[in-house]
Amino acid sequence: MCCKNPALASGTKYKVYVNLAAFSYFGANNAYEVDRQKLFKLDFSDFKEGSFYYKSANTNNKSLWSNAEIIGPSFMVIPAGGADLPLPRV
Fold first, then answer.
1. Which of 7, 10, 41, 43 is deepest in the core (most CB within 10 A)?
2. How many alpha carbons fall within 13 Å on the CB side of residue 44?
3. d(CA 58, CA 30)
4. pTM higher than 0.85, yes or no?
5. What is the average per-residue pLDDT within 64-86?
């Protein structure tokens, strides 16, 4: 029995996908908190401690963590007959 790859768009007209580069960054901490209303409105006019961001009230050790990825190049070729590839049974 054959299964279609659910990651592929159904009926796509493109046979080759090329990704030259991708970049991702994430950073977080448990020492400061940000006012969500101002953050999501992108209102940075009053960027001061006490009005835009606050020191966290917890007494735990403070930490900062981050993750960065640079990925590429990559490509995917869809076979002429479609994306049906047999999956091995386990």
1. 43
2. 1
3. 9
4. no
5. 77
Residue 38 has a CB neighbour count (10 Å cut-off) of: 16
Does residue 88 contact residue 6 with C-beta atoms inside 8 Å? Answer: no
Rounded CA separation 83/12 (Å): 11
The DSSP output letter for 31 is: S
CA-based nearest residue to 27, from 69, 60, 71, 57: 69
pLDDT higher for 84 or 60?
A: 60
The C-alpha angle 72, 74, 75, rounded to 5 degrees, equals 160
Longest dimension (CA), the chain: 62
Q: Which domain holds residue 9?
A: 2-86
The larger pLDDT score, comparing residue 60 to residue 1, is at 60
Q: Which two tokens stand for residue 39?
A: 């953050």
